[in-house]
Design goal:
This protein is of the alpha/beta class. It is 42% helix and 18% strand. It has two domains: 8-131, Rossmann fold; 145-412, Rossmann fold (3-Layer(aba) Sandwich). It contains 17 helices and 13 strands.
Amino acid sequence: MAQGIADIRVVLVTRDPAVGEQVEHVCREHKAFTLVGTLARADEAASLARQRKAHVIVLDTAALSQMEQDVMNVALAAPESTVFVLVPEGDWETAQRALLAGARGFVTKPIKPEEWTQTITRALTLDMLRHGREVETDEHASRARIITIASPKGGVGRTFLAVNLGAALHEVTGKHVLIMEAMSLPGDMQVYFSMLPKVSLAEAVHVAEDLSTASLGTLLTAYKEGLYVLPGVLDYTTDPPDTDRIRLFLRLARRLFDYIIIDTGELQDPLTEIALKEADLVLLVLTPDLLALYRTSKFLAALLESRTIPEEKIIPVLNMDNLPGSVRRDVLERVLGRPFKHTIPAATEIVQEATRQGEPVVLYAKRTPVSRHIYALAAELARHPDTGTPSPADTTVPVTQALRTLWDNLRSGNLSQVRITG
């Protein structure tokens, strides 16, 4: 698992040997940074940054004859690098002028290693995400696969599947897994683990830029080594997370985990849209009853019509299979127009017992049929080939529009607007 971005290459512009020595010392002490060049003239910084593939250009304001113009010129000439300025401690006016001229941040002199590391890493991370740039990561880095659990109907076992699938993936692969909620109202995830997480998603997104350097143990809550839990919100008075911040959080979290399992809420919840669009795979959950079948068939048709999520990324999962009095599987498959490769048998008593003990059923009762089926699903997903990221939004019908139309049709009972597949 990646602990943070590494090999941040720095070009420094200064005429003060003491400043050069301080920067060299910081780069030696903090292995994430490499000083690749020191100059006395700002007009040469952009060229050297391109040659050395520098991510950061640090300008000592004492070395600039026309500070604002020099900062602007460097920022425009080196768009692939992030510009910072060094200002004397307490000289906030100069810092503000530099920021208005195009610098992305400032560090004070004399240099404090902790301030240098946090300021530059945070601003650089945000800048990379804004512009789609990447910094080399260490040998343990991975791009997490996001698996979103979705359903147009409540009560089908979305949270149950998210919790147990995440735990099973961790057991099967031994890799780092984050199980999280993307919903605007409180969910039930922490109940399955009998724990109170340190923070919720609503709180974590406000420090999302720190995830590249912060210790996970101080921010996210580990149920066990390598298995982390993050609820969406903890109470009804909490404002839901900002959607742009969630996108940032997920992009950073991809660097820190191998799998991210997302439990979603209602269709009209804007966080559901993000969870669907960011997903590499979508597990579409339903139970063997007519209402779940009806709503799921409409939902599936809307997703396919919108083309936001490629069909091969949608995997139907039948929960509570073989429940007495339920709709037969062949009927479900005929209406949906596809077979169920993955089913989870009904096991109400053992699931309730595991929940009372504060453990996912796949950890509490590994050899029961319900656990074996979930482990089989986890093993299959672990072998599933990478399918890339979802299709760009500008080439498809926005998923929000499709889901809103579907929701309106479901509430009005208008069956003619969205057809049943199969």
